[in-house]
Amino acid sequence: MVQLTSPPRGLSFSHPVVLISTWFGSGLLPKAPGTWGSVAAMPFALLIWWLGGALWLALAGVALFAVGIWSSQRYTLALGRDDPSEVVVDEVAALWLVLSALPVTPFNWFAGFLLFRIFDIVKPWPISWADGRIKGGIGIMLDDMIAAFYAVLLFVAIDIAIASLT
Questions:
Q1: pTM across the whole model
Q2: In this predicted model, what pLDDT tens digit does every residue of 134-158 receive, in sequence order?
Q3: Where are the domains of the chain?
């Protein structure tokens, strides 16, 4: 049986702050919660894209970024810890922005997923700077937005390089 991380005292699993911050509990799974949150973001991304295309997915990412600042701030205050690993709304919003910028094919979306996860885990500068220096809800969300930007830039650079070879 899988043992989930418990939400903060005073917040039940069904509380909107917990549902949003942990992306419906995916961040409460043990081992690699950021990856689980990113995986859980994918079906929602596909549904949003199917309903309204890349623009809707980008707008949903921006809206979730704003909501994520609020929910992650509330979650961390209730928990009494900065940037707990179970808060994965940052991965969800950032991944939606990455996917909104890519042509919709299984390969492209998988590549975008991998590039984002690599940048989010490795944290090259300025991702590491934002992660270490900016606190609260904005800090939780911002480093992943920078990782999303890097992922899209690298994807485009690779795409251009491959196109120039053909």
A1: 0.95
A2: 999 999 999 999 999 999 999 999 9
A3: 16-165
